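Researcher: We plan to redesign the surface later, but first we want a full-length starting point. Tokens attached.
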């Protein structure tokens, strides 16, 4: 029985831990938003009808894709909606990275990129960030089969200026450049305005962070007609009905409530500012964050030990045993009350 030899073998992406007793723990490990989704979205969830389950949903998530495109002033034919930005990015890798030359992405970045590359057998090369974890734009002038950059980057939290993004897009006209803007709403500068100028650019965003809807799985990409058409051809070769009806309706409600969305972001940015002060006082180096998380390192105590101690107290943050970042912790910005508990625990741990 040699069937095992025919199974595809892949080292999968490892998501942050989802603890069982969710009500008791403080969960600062997967960059979720600590505040609820827009009230209109919850109301829709409570009023779902039979037809919302019985019928297939529209294949293009029409209502939702129109609402998102309209909000950003983008033509409806230039948007692709998927089941979280992970789904959108996976489809984009499969669609846009089809060269024998390696795709490029930073050595420290979203740890799903190398998994998709391995899964789809896309050759890749990682490009080192500088000593301050910043992207060196000139390093992306080498020959390549495509580029993907998270901006702001994760887990570093650092944003790259828009002119540097433009430099990379402009100087790579023969490949697709994907800018993953999962965290852009917390302080980065979106590349959306560049879409008018560059047909090789794709901008990917999500409802999981700034719109508090990680559980609904909504992500989207904006790109030129040719790229979106190719993305749809790939999607329709796998699963045409990706977006479920409740997600479509709840997503529309969320996008319509701009006031709520802005207020939530403002609260997180305010808490982030205070967190930088508190953690610096406790002896942490805190990287300059444009996201809803902080990337921190302590001069006296090892990140791994702090991580384990916090975990034993029911406070979950993220740690990677990886070169360059093994002495860092990534801490999602929670509510003020959650953050206060974090500072108190850290005070005890650090003695
Ligand atoms: N890109 C980055 C950089 C992320 O950190 C995440 C969250 N894990 C995603 C994309 C995917 O988020 P989602 O699938 O929830 O939209």
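Model: Full-length starting sequence:
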């Amino acid at each position: 029985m040699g069937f095992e030899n025919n199974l595809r073998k892949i080292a999968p992406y490892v998501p942050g831990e989802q603890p069982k007793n969710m009500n008791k723990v403080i969960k600062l490990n997967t960059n979720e938003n600590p505040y609820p989704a827009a009230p209109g979205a919850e109301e829709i969830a409570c009023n779902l009808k039979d037809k919302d389950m019985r019928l297939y949903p529209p294949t293009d998530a029409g209502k939702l894709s129109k609402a998102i495109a309209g909000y950003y002033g983008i033509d409806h034919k230039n948007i692709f909606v998927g089941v979280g930005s992970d789904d959108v990015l996976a489809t984009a890798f499969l669609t846009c990275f089809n060269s024998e030359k390696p795709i490029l992405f930073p050595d420290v970045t979203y740890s799903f990129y190398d998994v998709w590359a391995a899964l789809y057998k896309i050759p890749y090369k990682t490009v080192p960030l500088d000593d301050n974890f910043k992207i060196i734009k000139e390093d992306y002038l080498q020959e390549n089969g495509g580029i993907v950059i998270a901006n702001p980057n994760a887990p570093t939290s650092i944003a790259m200026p828009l002119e540097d993004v433009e430099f990379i897009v402009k100087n790579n006209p023969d490949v697709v450049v994907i800018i993953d803007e999962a965290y852009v709403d917390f302080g980065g500068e979106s590349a959306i305005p560049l879409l008018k100028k560059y047909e090789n650019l794709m901008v990917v965003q999500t409802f999981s962070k700034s719109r508090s809807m990680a559980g609904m799985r909504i992500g989207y990409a904006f790109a030129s007609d040719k790229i979106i058409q190719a993305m749809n051809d790939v999607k329709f070769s796998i699963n045409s009905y990706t977006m479920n009806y409740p997600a479509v309706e709840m997503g529309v409600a969320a996008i319509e409530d701009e006031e709520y969305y802005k207020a939530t972001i403002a609260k997180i940015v305010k808490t982030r500012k205070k967190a930088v002060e508190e953690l610096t006082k406790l002896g942490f180096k805190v990287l300059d964050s444009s996201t809803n998380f902080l990337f921190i390192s302590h001069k006296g105590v090892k990140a791994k030990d702090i991580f384990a101690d916090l975990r034993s107290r029911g406070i979950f943050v993220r740690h990677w045993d990886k070169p360059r970042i093994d002495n860092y912790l990534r801490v999602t910005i929670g509510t003020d009350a959650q953050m206060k508990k974090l500072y108190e625990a850290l005070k005890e741990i650090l003695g």
